[in-house]
Amino acid sequence: MSNTCHYCGIQMAIPEQGQVTMHPKQYEKMAGNRFVKPEFHQKHNRYYFSFQSTNNLITLLEEWLKEDVHNEWMELLDNHNNQMPITVQHLYERATQPALTSIIYNGEFTSHIQPIIDLKTQGIFGYEALLRTTNSSTSPGDLFAFAQRAGLHSMLDQKAREEAVKSKAKHIPKGQKCFINFLPSTIYVPEYCLRHTFNIVKHYDVAPSDLVFEVVETEKITNMDHLKNIFETYQASGMNVALDDVGSGYSTIEVLNLLKPHIVKIDREYIRDCHLEKEKQDFLLRVINTAYELGVELLAEGIETIEEYNWLQNNGIQYGQGYYIGKPSPYPIHSFSHA
C-alpha cells in the first residue's frame, strides 16, 4: 500500500507559497472569513486562496477555525501542481508542527524491544516492539497524539508496524515471538490496509508465526465485529493476535470467546501487588479459569517484583513481562535469571 492511500494520508510537504482550494459549499460555511478574497474559477467550480508564506497560511487557517469548520475538506496545492486533500484542522496541525510532521513523514523512529518470558521455564518467549523516536525529546505518546490531531495516525501506525517487523528481522531470533501494537481505528478495510504489512513481513523474510499483533491499550473499541475481522485477517496469514489489558475498558472476559485471540495480556493494574490483594487474586483466578476453558494463553504485564512473579508463576500464568524481567532496550537480552 502506498503512502497515497486516502486513509493513510498523502505525504506532501507544505510549500512556502501555494494555494488552498474548496468547493462553493465549503466556502459558504466559511463566510465569516472575509479578510482574504479568493479567486473563483468557473471552469473548476472552485474557490482558490493564495498564500505567500507558511505564516500566511496559518493565519488563514486560524480565521477559518474560528468559524467552527475544523472538519471541512479542501485541497492544498503547491507550485508544481501537486495536490493534497485535507481538512482545515489537519492542515493547521501540520503547518504549526512541522517538526512532528517530518518525524512521521520521514520515519524518524526506531523500535526498542522488551523481553517476554515463559514463567515456568524462564526462557525467552519473545519481545514486544515499542516505538521510540530518534529525537529523544519527542515521546511516542506525544507523537501519536499529534498524529491523531493531524490526520496522520494511519500513516504513523503503518510505519510503526513496519519498523517493528524490521526490528524482528534484525534482532529477534527465529522462533521467538515479536509483539507488534496496532490501532484498529487505522485499519479501515483489513484485506487492503494490511497488505503493506504483509508485504513487509515477506520482504524481511520473517516467519508469520513469529508475529503477534496486539491491540494497543489506548484504543477504545466500539465495533467488535470490525476488530474480529482484523483478527481473522491476521490469522488467515498465519500470524497470531493478542488482546491487551483484559480487565480494563473494552477488554473484558466476555469478549474473549467472540474474538478468540491467541494470547491475552492482563492489565498491569491487576498485577501490581497481586500477591497481597485478595480482590486482584480473585479476578486473576477467574481469568485463568476462563482462558483455560477457551484455550487462550495469558501474559501478565507490568511485573515489577519477585513476589508478583512468584504468585503469577504458582497460579498458572504462562508468560510475563515487566521491569523485573527486563526494560525496553535496542537489543535483546541473552537470558533471564529468576532469583
What do these coordinates show?
- The strands form two sheets. This protein has an eight-stranded mixed barrel with strand order 6-7-8-9-10-11-12-13.
- The protein folds into two domains: 18-96; 102-321, EAL domain (TIM Barrel), CATH 3.20.20.450.
- It is an alpha/beta fold.
- The mean pLDDT is 88.
- The chain starts with 17 loop residues before the first strand and ends in an 18-residue tail after the last strand.
- It is built from 13 helices and 13 strands.
- Helix 2 crosses helix 3, helix 5 packs antiparallel against helix 6 and helix 6 packs parallel to helix 8.
In short:
By secondary structure, the protein is α/β, with parallel strands linked by helices.
How many distinct domains?
2
Helix content: 25-40%
- Please report the first level of CATH classification, the CATH class of the largest domain: Alpha Beta
The run of helices and strands is: EHEEHEEHHEEHHEHHEHEHEHHEHE
Beta-strand content estimate: 15-25%
Number of strands: 13
Largest sheet, order of strands side by side? 6-7-8-9-10-11-12-13
Number of helices: 13
Task: Give the CA-based shape.
Answer: elongated
Structural class label: alpha/beta
Report the CATH topology name of the largest domain.
TIM Barrel
Through-space gap between termini: 48 Å
Give the uncertain stretches in residue-range form. none
Assign the CATH superfamily of the largest domain: EAL domain
Largest sheet: 8 strands, mixed, barrel
- What is the second-level CATH architecture of the largest domain? Alpha-Beta Barrel
The averaged pLDDT comes out at 88
Protein name: EAL domain-containing protein
